[in-house]
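re: ur question from yesterday

yeah so i grabbed the chain u mentioned. its 336 aa long if i counted rite. heres the sequnce exactly as i have it in my notes:
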Amino acid sequence: MISVIVPVYKSEKTLEKCVNSLLNQTDKDLEILLIVDGPPDGSGILSERLAEKDSRIRVINQENQGVSKARNRGIAEAKGEYIRFVDSDDFVDEDSNEKLLAALKKRDADLVIAGYRHLYFGRDILKLPKEGTYEMDGLTGAQEEEWRQLYLQGFLNMPWNKLYKRELIKECFPLDLNLGEDLLFNQAYIRNIKKAAVLSYPVCNYIQDERGTTLSTKKRMDKIPIAFRLYEETTGFFKELGIEDGNMPATKVVTEFLDDLEGLAFDPSMGRKEKMEVIRQYGKALKELKEPGRHPALRKPDYKIIFFFYKRGCVKMVYFLVQARGLIVRILKKRG
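ran it thru and got these structure tokens back, copy pasting raw so excuse formatting
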């Protein structure tokens, strides 16, 4: 049985669609754990109502302690042999459990990593990793490069595109981070496995809109020390796997900083002065990193241009470019 863990917080508008996509799975042998994390809206009441309709749903209430604590509670409460995580504002393909489980069993794997659809500001972007099977204690040269690409393309970051074996989860999500905890959880899990399977098939619809770009100035500043911690942890992770990282952790930090800068254009909670301060602080942090390696994102026109001025400390120009790109994205979204 697959135990699907769904943290519930401020999701009364999206939860029912999420849960229905799980109830409609072609593989019916599952339990759905709705971990209600003290939401201030009606999503807790909605969770109870959904549970009344199907015995496969269990509602577990806790005081608001954050998504990591909710996921950890789900792991502790799960009864299934396999674990899957789904966010309450996303939804999954109806055959996704079946596909994940079939790949895990057919390839005798301990972990399955799959693709997803990124529903980003009205755009449907299909993100698929390269199909493969990896003996984690004996990666070949070509497989090492494929594993590097999995990391650089972000497929190792999130938990909701994966299927785990519950017995192999030795470390839960860290509670001292509010960003990047997923990556550290996945790295800890991968250290305990013998074989990983990669499925070039989408299993989840990840929704990102303007809400996902709104962060407090403090939280954005918190991202800098967190990024350096992830940089150090990931450098050690690849060393343990015996993979030459080629400055990949530094490259990932740079691309994530650029992602965050581009998101500033959609954040109404911050004024021009605050946004420029974020750009300035990220620029200072960038100088402390190794020179990033090659990455496809850094060759995209918008990233390439912004990065050119970014590493030279041209705060005003970066701000202008970020705002201009945001305007273009909004125009394209209106045109459909």
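noticed a couple things. The first strand starts at residue 2 and ends at 8. also Residues 213-335 form one domain.
anyway ttyl
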